[in-house]
TrEMBL record:
<dbReference type="InterPro" id="IPR007085">
    <property type="entry name" value="DNA/pantothenate-metab_flavo_C"/>
</dbReference>
<comment type="pathway">
    <text>Cofactor biosynthesis; coenzyme A biosynthesis; CoA from (R)-pantothenate: step 2/5.</text>
</comment>
<dbReference type="InterPro" id="IPR035929">
    <property type="entry name" value="CoaB-like_sf"/>
</dbReference>
<comment type="similarity">
    <text>Belongs to the PPC synthetase family.</text>
</comment>
<dbReference type="Pfam" id="PF17181">
    <property type="entry name" value="EPF"/>
</dbReference>
<feature type="domain" description="DNA/pantothenate metabolism flavoprotein C-terminal">
    <location>
        <begin position="285"/>
        <end position="412"/>
    </location>
</feature>
<dbReference type="GO" id="GO:0004632">
    <property type="term" value="F:phosphopantothenate--cysteine ligase activity"/>
</dbReference>
<keyword id="KW-0173">Coenzyme A biosynthesis</keyword>
<protein>
    <submittedName>
        <fullName>OLC1v1017519C2</fullName>
    </submittedName>
</protein>
<dbReference type="GO" id="GO:0015937">
    <property type="term" value="P:coenzyme A biosynthetic process"/>
</dbReference>
<keyword id="KW-0732">Signal</keyword>
<feature type="signal peptide">
    <location>
        <begin position="1"/>
        <end position="25"/>
    </location>
</feature>
<dbReference type="Pfam" id="PF04127">
    <property type="entry name" value="DFP"/>
</dbReference>
Amino acid sequence: MKNSMKLRKLALATFIFMLMILAISHYNGKGGQKNDSTPHINPPEDLGGKGEIGMQLYPTGSRLPDCSHACGPCFPCKRVMVIFKCSLAESCPIVYSSELPHTVVNSFEQFILLMDDDGQIETSLAEIQSFFDSAPPLKDREGIITKVQDFIHKNSSSSGIGKAARVVCVTSGGTTVPLEQRCVRYIDNFSSGRRGAASTEYFLEAGYSVIFLYRSGTCQPYCSTLPDDPFLNCFDASDDTAIQVHPSFAKEVKRAIKENRAAVLGGRLLKLSFTTIFEYLQMLQLIATSMNTLGPSAMFYLAAAVSDFYVPWETMNVHKIQSGSGPLDISLAQVPKMISALRREWAPLTFCISFKLETDSKILLEKARRALKKNKVHLVVANELSTRKEEVIVVAENEEIVVRRNQSKAEAEVERPLVALLVDRHSAYIKHSGS
């Protein structure tokens, strides 16, 4: 029995090896570039149809050679990390990836892994959909959809001066990663939410309508200049019944109440809160697909600190993890990069700004440039942790712009000149798009 199993495994390995040799020969015979380690392919022709192998195996982490020819309408100017379809039965619909060995899908076309210009694998749509399918259901999903769509409908009409109204989605605060389904413990991302809150004020001042997607409990628009715990620190109780604003905060509190109320009641500010990585990404997708109808007039200002790693819901403990079991070892999965999905699928015509925060200034700009190229966003705001309140660097395709706060004014914020710059760039984008 053991010898029989060994022979079957050897036969299968030999069969796969021969397929690779034939595929390479087939490719080189057609005049393609020869590369002994990672041969290139012509995707539309070589991938084949149902029941065919028609593809090549690449080792995990392989880098594909440069593409010197058009790959056809389905894969313009892209390189492809090829995956292996089960060859044991022609009717088998299952596709296995050498890069994602635990992922199985029934749609071959959906699971082709594209490569970016650095030879890194782009997040596949199937990988993203798998994340959403396994996430816990979003609470009040239908209610959120209704709020977002009503807000967009109200703010998508002409501004009255012949220009389309502009809407920006500002994301703010950090996401949590639950360690249990009935969550007691979680991993958190550092963010006070002050940048998103202050930026929301300046976008409203510039005439934008704002969807403010924020972490519950973080800083709110018009409150960024108030002290922590403003309810306790800004008010005095003069007697048993009367509560009044402390004189030192009267101006700021009056402004916060007045301007926040005007924005919300005027229908120009919609606030939506999240806590977990699951809630944030599901809500971002809902907002993006709804804002897609606005085209270039819409903007995404993605200032939230989003977790890079998470515990998949189906592998998570249901109840509180017990400390009596000894040291805790946790395996974290990578969160799929949703910005690429937003740019490719959810809202491809919108103007998109992402953020890059680092603690090491030596790698900050390189990481920002890479994010700009990989995610196909229009601008990346690069900020270093210790100087983030004083200056940021806006990285564009062909330039880098240093934005500093007005240091002659103690209360000045770097977000004011930053938003002014982004509004100008958005205007140029709209003009170039013909909107």
